[in-house]
């Protein structure tokens, strides 16, 4: 299946959902959802969003943060994934792959991610039949797992896919695993989260069971109706990340296996995963989800900020370890 085309979206009458960029906030070995309070966590993450990010995060994140790397200035949420590394085919050393901008984002966006909150699909919002409830303060969830190790398991994680970019506007087909050849414009990763909530729990022991995924195919499609066990329809959250693998293409010998690994190592791309920590200020996300026929524009109810302002938002280095340059082992994996 072809992934969503930015060029098509800009030309077609799209009227539903939020799409915006968040510059990179930090790259650290912290995970306040899966390993709260642990510094450092088991593997490295690439994080965007608000400056309340820390080893432990409880309560109303949006009330505590004072800045965000996201274009939507009322979004103090944090979004993170594992970090991609190139493993040298000859000497086995590792080099972190930089993140680069996606297409059609606000000028000045630095690396980071593209974030989506969709109500239905890209052409309709269907709010009359399917009202959307925003996440409550303290909500968090994950999707995917670093322990996923087989093709069948990976296929079951609908919406966690890769593209071998020919250009930022030509993504090619979606794949369950890493590309098997060098990609002219980098490796593109997408993480779609489930949209049905049990209406009670802000989290669950596995950080996933309080949510339910009714989507059965990849791409930006409307999730089928929620089950009685998880009856509350939430926004469909999606992350997109562009990993600039181009500088390593000349070091990938023809005919040899994929040399890219996630920061938890693994033997394939099956273990791709992502974490979400809700942090919108007040009722700002609910206002946006109540707004019909909006896209790209903040839904007419959210204040935007210049990315030059967003890029000033930082957090301190709480771990203090080298994560870039040529390394003889992945951070935390010695």
Structure in words:
This protein has 334 residues and is mainly beta. It contains 5 helices and 18 strands. The strands form 4 sheets. Strands 1, 7, 8, 10, 11 and 15 form a 6-stranded antiparallel beta sheet that branches. A hairpin with a 6-residue loop joins strand 5 and strand 6 (94-96). It starts with 5 loop residues before the first helix and ends in a 7-residue tail after the last strand. The model is unreliable at 1-14 (pLDDT under 50).
- Give me the strand/helix succession: HEEEHEEEEEEHEEEEEEEEHHE
Q: How would you state the average pLDDT, rounded?
A: 92
Helix % is: under 10%
Uncertain regions: pLDDT < 50 for 5+ in a row?
A: 1-14
Morphology: globular
Count of alpha/pi helices: 5
Report the strand count.
18
Q: What percent strand?
A: 15-25%
Question: What attributes does this structure have?
Answer:
334 residues; mainly beta; six-stranded antiparallel β-sheet; five-stranded antiparallel β-sheet; 5 helices; 18 strands; disordered N terminus
Strand and helix layout:
Elements: H1 6-11, E1 18-22, E2 24-28, E3 45-49, H2 61-64, E4 78-82, E5 84-87, E6 94-96, E7 99-100, E8 113-118, E9 140-144, H3 151-156, E10 160-164, E11 187-192, E12 196-197, E13 211-212, E14 232-233, E15 236-243, E16 260-262, E17 273-277, H4 284-290, H5 307-310, E18 326-327
Antiparallel strand pairs: 1-8, 2-3, 3-4, 4-17, 5-6, 5-16, 6-18, 7-15, 8-15, 9-17, 10-11, 11-15, 12-13, 12-14
């Amino acid at each position: 299946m072809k992934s969503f085309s930015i060029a098509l979206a800009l030309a077609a009458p799209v009227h539903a959902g939020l799409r915006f960029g968040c510059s990179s906030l930090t790259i650290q070995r912290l995970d306040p959802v899966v390993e709260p309070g642990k510094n450092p966590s088991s593997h490295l993450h690439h994080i965007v969003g608000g400056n309340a990010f820390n080893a432990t995060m409880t309560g109303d994140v949006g009330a505590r943060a004072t800045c965000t790397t996201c274009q939507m200035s009322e979004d103090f949420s944090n979004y993170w994934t594992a970090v991609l590394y190139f493993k040298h085919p000859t000497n086995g050393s590792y080099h972190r792959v930089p993140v680069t901008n996606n297409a059609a984002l606000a000028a000045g966006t630095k690396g980071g991610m593209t974030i989506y909150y969709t109500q239905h699909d890209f052409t309709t919002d269907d709010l009359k039949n399917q009202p959307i409830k925003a996440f409550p303060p303290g909500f968090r969830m994950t999707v995917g797992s670093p322990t996923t190790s087989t093709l069948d398991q990976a296929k079951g994680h609908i919406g966690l896919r890769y593209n071998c970019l020919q250009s930022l506007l030509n993504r090619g087909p979606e794949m369950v695993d890493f590309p098997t050849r060098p990609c002219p414009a980098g490796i593109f990763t997408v993480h779609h989260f489930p949209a049905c909530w049990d209406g009670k729990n802000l989290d669950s022991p596995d950080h996933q069971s309080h949510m339910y995924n009714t989507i059965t195919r990849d791409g930006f499609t409307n999730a089928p109706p929620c089950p009685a066990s998880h009856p509350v329809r939430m926004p469909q959250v999606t992350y997109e990340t562009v990993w600039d693998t181009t500088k390593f293409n000349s070091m990938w010998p023809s005919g040899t296996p994929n040399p890219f690994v996630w920061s938890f190592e693994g033997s394939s791309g099956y273990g791709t995963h992502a974490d979400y920590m809700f942090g919108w200020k007040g009722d700002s996300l609910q206002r946006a989800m109540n707004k019909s026929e909006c896209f790209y524009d903040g839904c007419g109810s959210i204040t935007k900020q210049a990315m030059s302002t967003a890029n000033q938002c930082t957090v301190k280095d709480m771990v203090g370890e080298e994560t870039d340059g040529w390394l003889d082992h992945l951070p935390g994996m010695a």
